[in-house]
Design goal:
The protein has 2 helices and 7 strands. The protein has helices at about 5-15, 75-80, and strands spanning about 1-5, 35-40, 40-50, 55-60, 60-65, 65-70, 85-90. The strands form 2 sheets. It has a 4-stranded antiparallel β-sheet with strand order 4-3-2-6, with helices on one face.
């Protein structure tokens, strides 16, 4: 996945959906992640704890390579809040990750 999106919009989306990240299912690391799907000009961000699922959408993304990634929600959110700039460029096409 390769995309450019408004940093504040992505940070806000991660903060919104992070309420549904798992705390009681500690053994399933994927439940601590935020599923980010980028297609066309839209990013869909979803978190779940298997009881509650929260999804939000960001319009206006510049997606050059569609795809899905699942970064750790809280860490990725902290990163987005710590970096400067209006836009964030995501490049998850490296097969070695």
């Amino acid at each position: 996945m390769k995309a450019t999106v408004d940093r504040k919009a992505l940070s806000s989306a991660i903060a919104t959906v992070s309420a549904a990240t798992a705390t009681k299912h500690g053994g399933l690391a994927v439940l601590q992640g935020a599923r980010i799907e980028a297609v066309g000009e839209t990013m869909t961000v979803t978190c779940t704890d298997l009881d509650l699922t929260v999804t939000t959408r960001i319009d206006g993304a510049d997606v050059t390579t569609p795809g899905v990634v699942i970064p750790a929600a809280r860490i990725f959110g902290a990163y987005l809040n710590a970096v400067d700039g209006d836009l964030v460029h995501l490049d998850f096409d490296n097969p070695d990750l």
